[in-house]
Design brief:
single chain; 57 residues; mainly alpha; 68% helix
């Protein structure tokens, strides 16, 4: 195994791990947005959402 091969393999593995983490975070973000949409559709609101007229402050 040459020195150049070791360096190239190290960069390749680091890039692959970074790409996997980016994809994982992206997919998880979409899943959380979907869950929030389902909760809001069922009537559950965020604490930061403006209060409707019938709700207490």
């Amino acid at each position: 195994m040459t020195h150049g091969f070791y360096i190239a393999m190290s960069y390749g593995i680091a890039a692959l791990i970074s790409l996997c983490l980016i994809v994982w975070v992206w997919l998880d973000g979409h899943a959380r947005k979907r869950e929030l949409a389902e909760l809001e559709a069922s009537g559950i609101r965020r604490r930061s959402a403006p209060k409707s007229e019938g709700e207490k402050a």
